[in-house]
Every structure is written in structure tokens, then in C-alpha cells.
Amino acid sequence: MNVTLQKELKAYQKSIRKKLPFLNKNCRLVLRDFFCEMENYAVECPDASIAEIKEKFGSPEAVAASLLSDEKAAMLKKQNKRVLIAGAALLLLVVMLSVMAVILGDIYLNEKNYHRFDEPEAVAPSELSDSNK
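^ that's the sequence the OP posted. Answer follows.
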């Protein structure tokens, strides 16, 4: 690979990096592999020009768009997982609160209608005289 092609290749890689916003670790690894593949192609075909390399690998805009679409898909999958977990947690909370409300309501109603059966009821003397007749 000649020096001119190497400089043009570095400029091409720099233009791809400029098209991409902040990248996470996975995207940087994919981009590094892509650049290694590009450099390997330039070494295997020493008579290749930068135009041929751009034709084979695509314009910087196309490369950036493909990497971003993959990144967006991964972000959407992660976001969907978060929404699913939050929904499940919310559903669990609603079920727990409903069960607590039923239990507390049952306790309240039982306390309201609670009688002690070990204590005899007080009977008025007039009731006793009526029952003896």
C-alpha cells in the first residue's frame, strides 16, 4: 500500500468517524473491525484506488447510516426490555396493593362484627321474668 493511498484511507476513515455521533463500546468495536477489513483489502490489492475502496465499502454517509441503524435497533431492544420490566413491576405492585386492600378490608369487617363468645351476654332482669312465665 503506497503512502498516498494510506493517507486517503485515513481521511476516508476520519470522514466516517465525523458522521457518527457518540459511540458505545460495541459500535466502536464494529467500526474498528470495519476499518481493519478496509485496510486488509488495501494491502491485498495494492493497485486499488480510494475510489475503488469507496465503491466496495460505500460512502461515509452510507457506512455511518448502517452503523447507526444497527445501533438504533440495539437501543430499541434495550428500551423495550426496560419498558417490559417496568410494566411487570407496576403490575406486581398493583396486585400486591389489591391483595393488601382485600386483607385489610376483611380484617376491618371482622373487627367491626367481632363478638367475644367466652363472655356471656348481659341479660336484663325484665327479660328473665318474661322467659319464666
